[in-house]
Structures are given as C-alpha cells and as structure tokens.
Amino acid sequence: MTALLTEYSDFDRHTFGPDFVWGTATAAYQIEGAVDRDGRTPSVWDTFSRQKGKIKTGETADVACEFYDRYESDLRLHKELGFDAFRFSLSWSRILPDGVGPKLGGRLNEAGLAFYNRLIDHCLALGMTPWITLYHWDLPQALENKGGWPNRNIVDWFAEFADICTKAFGHKVKHWIILNEPLAFSVLGYFTGQHAPGRRSFRNLLPVIHHTALAQAEGGRIVRQNVPDAQVGTTFSCSPIDPFTASTRDGAAAARVDALMNRLFIEPALGLGYPTKELPFLAGIAKKVAKPGDMERLAFDFDFVGLQHYFRAVVEHSYFMPYLWASQVSPLRRNVSTITEMGWEVYPESMYRIIQQFSQYEGVRKIHITESGAAFYDTVQNGAVNDTARLEYHQNYLYQILRAKRDGLPVTGYFAWTFLDNFEWAEGYRPRFGLVYVDFRTQQRTVKASGRWFQQLLTNQHRLADVNQS
Ligand code: GAL
C-alpha cells in the first residue's frame, strides 16, 4: 500500500465505529442502459444527449454499464468489496412512463416496479442495505413537455411519484433520499443550460428553485408518512468557499457564492428561508413566485443530510457574472497541480471544513457523505488498474472525515462516488470515477487498486480474493 496508509496506521473500518455506513453511490441514468426496454420512456437526459454538441463526446447512456441486465453480478461484486450499503436512484419514466401515475391520469409500469423489486431483493439477500434516491436528474420527457420544473404542477407530479415508490418499496427499504443535488439540476438544467433539459433563461430560475425546494420538503413528508420507520434525508452539493484575496470585495463575493452553492436549498428546509441577504434577487421568490403558505411548506425535519463534496472553490469579485458578481479562480490560475480530470482541485481538508460548516446548523443532527470521489485517467495493464491517485483521494478525504468524527461532528457514513465507471453526464464516458473499471466495448469489469483498498479496509482481509469479473 502507499505511504499514506502507514501514516494512517490506525485507519480501518473499526476506527470509524460500528454504526458508520460504508457504501457507494450510483444513479439510474448513469448506469442502467436499457433505455427503451420494458416500457421505459425517455427522460430529459435521453433527449438532451441526442442533441448535437450537448455531450462533449457525443455519447448517450443508451447502454451505459448495462446494469439493468447485470445488476446481479454487479451487486455480488459490490458485496465482495465489503460495502454494506448500495445507493441507487429510481428512473421515474421506468415506473411512470407518462410522468404521472394513475391518480393524475397516467399509467403505472409494473415492469419498472418489478426491476427495482428484483434489485432491492438482491441487495437484501446479499446482506446490503438499499438506499434509494427518488430523483437523480432524469425527469420524464413527458413532464418536460408539460413545462418541467418551471411548472408548479411539478410539486404534485413529484408527490405522486414519491407516494407510489414509497408504497411499493417502503416495506423493504428504510433509507430514502429525496433529491440529488438540487442546485445542479435546477441551475445547470434551466439557467446555464449545460445539463438536461438545456434551457437557458433567468425567467425560469426563481420558479425552478422554488418548486424544487417545495418538492424537497413535500417528498420528505410523503416518505415519513408512508414509511414511518424510515431514515429520510436529501443531498446537497457543497464546497467550502475561499476568497482569492483578503480584500473586502472578494470576501463579499465568497459570501454570495457560499449562499448559492451551500445554503440555497438547506436553509429553506431548516425553516430559515432563502438566503436573500447575500442574494437579493431571491427575494423575487416570495414576491412573485410563492403562493400563500408556501414559505412554511418549505420546511421539513430531515433525519439526515447527505453532503456531496469533491472540491473547494476559490472565488473573486467579478463584473462579468450578473447577480452573483463573482467568479471562480481556477486551480490552474492558482498554480495548483493536484487536479482531477474534471479540473477539480484535490484539497482533502475541505471535507473537514464542509462537515464543520453544515454541523453548525441546529437542525442538522446527522450527516452522511453521500458522494465523494475523483476522476483520473485509468489504464488496464496486465489485468490491473493501478489508480494510486484515486486511492489516495479516498484515503485523504476519509481521514478528514475521521478527524471530524473525533472532534465530535455528527458524520456517520461514506458513499464513494462511484462503484462502476459510468456515463458522466455532459462529459460522456471519459471521466472515470469508478472503483471498478468498465471496458465499455466488452462490459468487462476490473477492480481498480482503489476498489481493492476499500475491500481490504472493509473486510480486513490480508490476502485479497480475486474478484475481477466479466
Ligand atoms: C455529482 C452527481 C453524480 C456524479 C458526480 C461526479 O454531482 O450527483 O451523478 O456525476 O457528481 O461528477
């Protein structure tokens, strides 16, 4: 193992305590493939990825990791790596091909429910806990055609979907995540247009934010009502924000970016409202978008929050970015050499800082790191992938989680992003985040050194079994 392991000689799964949850995180559209099988209809990502120039590599997730057909052997491998929790999302249009279900005049696709039942049952049979994400960005195209997230009816559409899923799986699944990174799909999907559905308008931004925040709380209430013994959480993308210089202007820019990137969706859930002091344009929500009673409906007492953390951000004042008046100072400009294939800075201490920042909210009682990981260029040589940089990323970020735990912060789980190399949204298949390498021509799986390190950490085996699979 690397020098780091020796340095962290006290580092094994027991150090994190018996209740600490070890898992990986995945998302339906990124791994399932089978996009037109058994009654599934297109999602916004199917449409978007078919449009020219939207995906850097021109690829789609039509096939992806073929997880739809390979889930049994894949979950076996996941278990062999020692993980006790598997996080996956439900493809909304696989379950409700019209986007809405019978209550709102649409069809329920039994074949879609059957797939997730098989997947859940298989997880349970292997002794792994299923963690369901209700929404990981793949809105049914049928609902986008009716206006998508800018249409207030989305709150009812999502509520019906949540109701159907919790009634179908709630007797077996006790860990529920409402939304995956609301900031990403709302802002990238409807304001900057980099993600599906690729719409770009400021007019949509406030309605999208508000309907998303309402759906977040509404989803929480539905899970709690239908699965009273569930742990209910939701996830947030988050990064500590540092000002580039000590100037007052950069300091204020950092505060605005912090409000956007870290506070926008958690604070309404905690009953604190939107961060309008730093971002005055958000006041337009209460004035123009919200209906009476909405501000109270935004609050929900989640059992845990899921933090998804990858990098810190350094920002400076900028006249070029309207409303935010701030821009990121890239790692390259700061002469930072430890960057990933995504261009993100590797900065382990930011994990400690972000846990510390979110722990300060009175309403945050429990934190799980529901995603963290790194994309680096990988090659298979003699049947092995020696991904030292990714391995060190996980070691170093985990070490910061351990520090946080030792300082009494309530962090109780780590879900590595991700199990298998997969379709990385607008980037296509090029950035590889997996602990398991996927050859997308043959679908062969090869456990990377990082995956083997997790296996050793989690199973305490001295001699590792050969778990490579095809
Ligand atoms: C997250 C997202 C994942 C994955 C990851 C790596 O924002 O939830 O689906 O793509 O980033 O970029």
Automatic annotation (TrEMBL):
GO terms for molecular function: beta-glucosidase activity. InterPro entries: GH, GH_1_N_CS, Glyco_hydro_1, Glyco_hydro_1_beta-glucosidase. It is an enzyme of class 3 (hydrolase). PANTHER family: GLYCOSYL HYDROLASE, LP05116P. The keyword Magnesium does not apply. Pfam families: Glyco_hydro_1 (PF00232). It catalyses: Hydrolysis of terminal, non-reducing beta-D-glucosyl residues with release of beta-D-glucose. Belongs to the glycosyl hydrolase 1 family. The keyword Hydrolase applies. Keywords: Carbohydrate metabolism, Cellulose degradation, Glycosidase, Hydrolase, Polysaccharide degradation. This is Beta-glucosidase. Its EC number is 3.2.1.21.
